[in-house]
Design a protein that fits this description.
mainly alpha, single chain
Length: about 160
C-alpha cells in the first residue's frame, strides 16, 4: 500500500491511522455484538432463569429443612385453592339452580323418610300376619277338636 505524503510527514502516520481505524472498527464490531446480546430479551431471560435455578439449587442444598417447609406450604396452598375451586364449581350459579338443588335435596330426604316408614309398616304387617296365622291355627284346632267331640257324641247317640 502506498502512503501519501503530506508535506514533511512520512508514511508512518497514515499507516498508524489505518491501523487505528481497523482497531476502532474491530472494537465497534465487538461493542455492537455486546449491545445485540444485551437487547436479546429471550437470551437474557434464559440466563436469568439459569442463574435463579442455580441459586435456588445451591440454597436448597445448604438449607434443606427450610426448602422442605416452603415446598410443603406451597403444596398445601395449591391443595386448598384446588378444593375451593372444586367447591365453587359445584355450587349452583343462579337462583333456579339453587332452588332445583334445594328441591332435589328435600325430595331425597322425603324419599329416605318414606322408605324408613315403609320398612316399619312392612315389619308391623309381617308381625300381625304371624299373629293372625297363629290365632287362625289355634282356632282351627279348637274347631277340629269340637267337631271330633260332636262327631263322637252323635256316634254315641246313634249306637244306643
Amino acid at each position: 500500500m502506498s502512503a501519501k505524503r503530506n508535506g514533511a510527514d512520512s508514511g508512518a502516520p497514515v499507516d498508524e491511522l489505518r491501523d487505528d481505524i481497523a482497531q476502532t472498527r474491530a472494537d465497534l464490531g465487538g461493542t455492537v455484538g455486546a449491545l445485540a446480546e444485551k437487547t436479546d430479551v429471550k437470551k437474557q431471560a434464559r440466563k436469568a432463569k439459569e442463574r435463579a435455578a442455580d441459586q435456588m439449587g445451591e440454597s436448597a442444598r445448604r438449607h434443606p429443612v427450610r426448602w422442605g417447609g416452603i415446598v410443603a406450604g406451597l403444596l398445601a396452598a395449591v391443595a386448598a385453592i384446588g378444593a375451593l375451586r372444586w367447591r365453587q364449581s359445584r355450587r349452583p350459579k343462579n337462583r333456579a339452580e339453587r332452588v332445583w338443588h334445594d328441591v332435589k335435596s328435600r325430595a331425597k330426604d322425603v324419599r329416605k323418610d318414606v322408605k324408613s316408614r315403609a320398612k316399619d309398616v312392612q315389619k308391623d304387617v309381617k308381625s300381625r300376619a304371624k299373629d293372625v296365622r297363629k290365632d287362625a291355627r289355634s282356632k282351627a284346632r279348637g274347631v277340629k277338636r269340637d267337631a271330633k267331640r260332636a262327631a263322637l257324641q252323635m256316634k254315641g247317640r246313634m249306637s244306643r
